[in-house]
Amino acid sequence: MSTLAENQWMLAVDTSTNSMSVALTRGDALVGEISSAAERNHSLYLVPTIQRLLKEAGVRPKELSAFAVGVGPGSYTGVRIGVTVAKTFAWTHKLALIGVSTMEALALGGAVKAWGGGAPEADGLVEGIVLHGKGSLAADERARWVVPMLDARRGQVFTGLYEVRGSKWKCLIPDGIRLMSAWVDELLSLLKEQGAASFAGVAFTGELELHLEEIRRFAGDCDTAVLEAPHKLLARHIAELGLDRWREGLVHEVHTLVPNYTQLPEAEAKLLAKKQ
């Protein structure tokens, strides 16, 4: 499978957020990408957008070899639409089907924005990034955390925790839905356990606007550099992660791919109910 993946066409889709994104790749190369904000119309525009992207690239569906799709967590309806289209398309055209964490793809895009060209300095940040400076952002082998976030209403977020160390990337805390206030406390506790001196920075990315107060509480209570890196999910990052999984032979049967709708942990659900 790893040899096959290198020069083959792959479609990648994510509809888990208010942005619909579709990408076409060949091996490691991004051939085309279309993204739009159409949260209430993903079901109407996803298939026509796929058709448009393939037509513009001069690629027929039968030339495709794989379909990577964001499986959430995120919008329940959005996730369901994307996964349903991917499964139908893969079944119809006999494609390898690869499910990718929406949070991981969001984290990857945020990491690229924050540190893609080397760690940004306070006077040379990418537009839109806010730096809370308590420590160095120098590019080195220390760990960097990426916290992807999608608003889930009522003070909740879809989120997870990913770590970048050199060229290595891993998930530290699995995707889920959490109360933002409790999530910040958990991250602070974990950071203090490991020691801030071992970190080159923490980047919060994704939909941040409604949760800036808690992010800045985190920044004020820790001794490492904290970045606000707002970012909309792009299908190119679904494709990049999908290609890695495809190379490893981690593909799904059409009937076994299940969306990650996720649920609030029981203790936090009780806390939320009590507050309400």
Describe this structure in words.
This protein folds into two domains: 2-101 and 234-261, Nucleotidyltransferase, domain 5, CATH 3.30.420; 104-230, Nucleotidyltransferase, domain 5. It has eight helices and eleven strands. The chain is an alpha/beta fold and 276 residues long. It has a six-stranded mixed sheet, sandwiched between helices. Strands 3-2-1-4-5 form a five-stranded mixed sheet, sandwiched between helices. The protein is globular, with a radius of gyration of 19 Å.
SSE inventory with pairings:
Blueprint: H1 2-5, E1 9-14, E2 19-26, E3 29-37, H2 42-57, E4 64-70, H3 76-93, E5 96-100, H4 102-115, E6 130-132, E7 143-153, E8 156-165, E9 168-179, H5 180-194, E10 199-206, H6 212-221, E11 226-230, H7 235-247, H8 266-275
Parallel strand pairs: 1-4, 4-5, 7-10, 10-11
Antiparallel strand pairs: 1-2, 2-3, 6-11, 7-8, 8-9
Helix pairs in contact: 2-3, 4-7, 5-6
